[in-house]
Amino acid sequence: MPTRPEVNYPPFSYADDPWIPSVSGGDLRIRLIELQPLGQQSPATPLQCRVFWTPLGTHPPFKALSYAWGIGPPSSKCLVEDKYLLITPSLEVALQHVRHESEPIILWVDQISINQSDNNEKNEQVANMSQIYRSASEVIVWLGPAADGSDEFMEAFIRISNVVAEADFAKYLYMDGLLEILGRIFGKVDPTDPETIKFHKLVDTVACLADERILKGFAALTKRPWFSRVWAVQEYALAKTATFMCGKKTIPAEEAQLTREILEEAMDRMSPELRSLTLPLRNSPMELFLNASMYRKNFESGINAALPLYYLLVFLHVDHDMQATNACDNIYAILGLATDVEQLGLQADYSVKDRADLVFARTTRAIIGAKSGEILAMVKHPKLRPKLPSWVPDFTSKLDMSWAEGSIVGAPVLFNASGSYEGGLNPTTDELTLGVMGCVVDEIEDMGDVWNDEKTLLEIGHGLATAAPKISLHNKEALIKDFDTIDDASQVEIGGVPYTHQPYLEFLAQIESFCEQSAAKDCPIYATPERREEAIWRIPVGDAEKDEKSGRVRATSLSATSYALCKHNFIFMRDYRSLFVSELREAIARWETQEATKLPWRYRTRMRWMGGKRPFITKEGYVGLGPKCMQAGDLVVVLGLATLPYVVRRVDGEPGKFHLLGECYCDGIMDGEIVDKREKTEFLFV
């Protein structure tokens, strides 16, 4: 049926059928839209729909749409019966693709289903977002229109996902003891186990199916805006079932996620040419969405005890650049996913939507009050939002993972610098000021350079490779294949080393120097001389080492061995030009043998976790690694509500007030050794 000229349509008004506040959970209503089919009309014909209220408890079947709003104000028109409603162009394109050819489709779409200009309605509807998405029969994840060969990629990706789906490994995603089970299968603990055999056969098959188009297409897909939209995490994780839609191509989201996992496992079995394209598999934002979905579903099935807001914030903002149009939505968008929101007393409040400093401060304070003081480890300076108090993380920016942070919910806590002392929060009259009890460890006397690990990033894949690295020799003319063709006067260069040794050596040298200065001060920091000697290999890795199950554990004598191997190999790389040919042959063999153990790689990996910190020594001789913004005169402190020590700075002219600069590792106090030796005092962080 032809439409009337657009100029004749009056604007749609939510006031014609207004929101009625819910008195109890049982009478909550939601708006749904009935999107009319395309029928015989041109694809350019304006979208047409009907908007209606329905009780959430007795709703008709509907699908929820998850999409990126895009930038700019709403400027596209959608006809709501005989009136027009302005929506964003990105939503218009999404609905054009989602609508059926011949039948109406019932949808919940936040931009239309919630009156965006009514803060009270938004507060209620956002607070119940978890119920809404769990009630949807399906969540359609709209990734955007077809572009740059995405149709061909999706077709190939779907073919591989069908092979993966037939192997039925999705059953492990929501199973108690997942990591232990997968560790046995991935690591071939029992090569005769049928599931292990089937899994590795699948990995080999996928490695053969993967090609340049698949790997480049995957990288392009995960760069689409939806994967950086903070609202999408909750929408995806709460779905009964979700479907990725790109252009007109669709794939079940769970199949796509599992296929990505198998592709990542298969990357070391691919050709060297393809392996260079696999970085997006390792750093894929899809991992964030999979983890959120797994933890939520496992919580609902009783496998996980909880999914606290603190862990969600770590998932979202550590090493990920998640975005929301309104800064406060970086918190509000995941409240429906957290399991401790009621305990924290937090809820969406759009009356303060322009006060991100207040919303972020309230959230941080609530989490600290719930005995999760390690949220302070997310503090980073300088902040992109300069008005934020020093103790409040900037949840609009990508944050760094604490070196002590577990990558798994419920992983054991490594350190407890506060020991048995629990200072708690002190009341303050200003919500932007944090009052806590703690003690001063010592004043910082000197610092080294910032440990910058950017030059070592090329080594990321070294530990995953099945073959040990091999050194190659070159002269000015060509590759040297035979030692007998060179003499002691030859100028040779070494290749094939997967890291740059100089930054590591400089970092270790600064720590060694501070340890020597500490020994000269001879203050009673350590219980025994042997423990003082251990500082030289504990400090560079923050007294932690890699563990296959929990990600990291406290450093053991294995780290001491790894340190010695690392340092030997660094020195060889620095000095090899001074060796005679006979010595060089032996030294290269030793380097290759030591690298084949992967112990040096493990130690270097932990060193890289300390990137962005700088070595320091205090007046009494405490040595550690602290935030790069610290200065001489700053204080190392232990707070009664946190397991890690922190570096703070006095506020000039305001006694008792401090700026919190960030977490630190301080050798000799990480297990509560200092708290009974220092007077307790109040710190007011501003």
How would you sum up this structure, described in words?
The protein has 686 residues and is α+β, with helices and mostly antiparallel strands. Among the domains are: 6-136, no CATH class; 425-449 and 613-685, no CATH class; 454-609, no CATH class. It contains 22 helices and 23 strands. The strands form 4 sheets. The protein has a 9-stranded mixed β-sheet. Strands 11-19-20-21-23 form a 5-stranded mixed beta barrel. A hairpin with a 3-residue loop joins strand 15 (544-547) and strand 16 (551-554). The longest helix is centred in the last third of the chain and has 21 residues, at 501-521. The termini are far apart. The model is unreliable at 1-6 (pLDDT under 50).
What would you call the shape? globular
How are the strands of the biggest sheet laid out side by side?
A: 5-4-2-1-6-3-7-8-9
Class based on secondary structure composition and strand pairing: alpha+beta
Gyration radius, rounded = 29 Å
**Unreliable stretches covering 5 or more consecutive residues:** 1-6
